[in-house]
Amino acid sequence: MVITVEVKKMYKYPFELVVNIHLNKYPTPLEEHVTGIQTVEEKTDNVSGIIYRRKIATCNNVIPKFLRKINFLNVNDVLIEEESWLDMKQRILNIKSRCLTWAQYSTFHEVSVFKQSVENPNWTEFHQKGSIVVTGAGKLNRLCEVFAEAFFNKGVKKSVNIMETILEQRCGRPFL
């Protein structure tokens, strides 16, 4: 079964501010589970000006103990790869994320887009869609997917709250 989560959010801050916060928000005390971020590749296309970045996030494994009895789930750290393409001319940031740790047992993909709002040029639209399919846990696939769905939903809300908190702390109240 495919579990999907989708969120849309309007940040009432300019594109440059929102993108800068997103690209530099972790690690933060607001999210204790992200313990590190390493940029492993960064390059700029000389023709288009698009900046490509590939980062690896190290996160605490938040899977409950009873599910960690499944041997491959019993790891301390989870690695997430994030690839991003920042186009300042078009004022759009495209992001693709995937879990590296359990790639042979599940498929986790997340696609995010930040772009300047058509409604107000001082605002930034955010759209994120994620999916997960667990295939390597046998009869426990569905149980793992139920946990993943709950974790996804909670994580998306927490991520949006972190962005809003950091934006307000660093930039003040939203631009109206």
UniProtKB/TrEMBL annotation:
PROSITE patterns in UniProt: PRELI_MSF1
InterPro entries on file: PRELI/MSF1_dom (IPR006797), Slowmo/Ups (IPR037365)
Residue ranges annotated for the PRELI/MSF1 domain, each copy included: 1-175
Pfam families, per the entry: PRELI
Descriptive protein name: PRLD2 protein
